[in-house]
Design a protein that fits this description.
Elements: H1 14-36, H2 39-56, H3 66-83, H4 85-93, H5 101-106, H6 120-123, H7 130-139, H8 142-153, H9 158-165, H10 169-192
Length: 193
């Protein structure tokens, strides 16, 4: 569906919202999961994101792609949620878990089987190692993990990432390069052992 008309919309109908959820729902859910490492929070925050989109579509001006706008709302909603009393109290009593390899195949897939590699560099990675690579990415610090996710999974350009995260393009490029180097080093260490 072409969403260009939304740049001037004051409201959207349920059908348009439904199409948007079909087209971008997995992206939103996966992004929340990468930020929180919790399937429960990914479900809750994803719903909140689309409620905000429905009620705040007039704020979309078309200056960025709809996908970038949605991911920005997702990021802001997730960080707001993480600061909330409920999130802090849920962390007080329990630790958020990271999906195990078995949960990848039986539960909600963090990385779908139809994962499309955005670059020739990523295409070199064989499918059997994709989960292992993403395990390494998930173990990185937030600043590297988020940059790699936005670049590799969501195929955002450095200027889109910079605008979304409110950092310079130079910082994005530096973190992207350093993040890839960290993943490559850890991957080589795993392969040697």
């Amino acid at each position: 569906m072409d969403y260009q008309f939304l740049a001037h919309a004051q409201t959207i109908d349920n059908d348009t919202l439904s199409h948007m959820m079909d087209d971008y729902g997995n992206d939103v859910w996966n992004y929340v999961y990468f930020l929180t490492k919790s399937t429960e929070l990914a479900d809750e925050v994803s719903q909140e994101v689309f409620i905000r989109v429905y009620s705040g579509i007039a704020h979309f001006r078309g200056e960025s792609s709809l996908k970038t706008w949605l991911l920005t709302i997702t990021r802001n909603t997730t960080f707001t949620y993480r600061k909330s009393r409920f999130f802090r109290s849920s962390l007080w009593g329990e630790t958020l878990s990271i999906q195990t390899e078995q949960e990848y195949s039986t539960g909600r897939e963090m990385i779908p089987d139809t994962y499309a590699h955005p670059s020739a560099e990523a295409e070199v990675l064989s499918k059997e190692h994709v989960h292992e690579i993403w395990d390494i990415v998930m173990a990185l610090s937030d600043k590297f993990r988020e940059i790699l996710l936005l670049h590799l999974k969501y195929e955002l350009h450095t200027n889109e990432i910079a605008e979304m995260l409110r950092i310079s393009t130079g910082t994005v490029k530096s973190r992207l390069s350093r993040g890839k180097a960290k993943v490559q080093k850890q991957w080589e260490e795993r392969s040697e052992s």
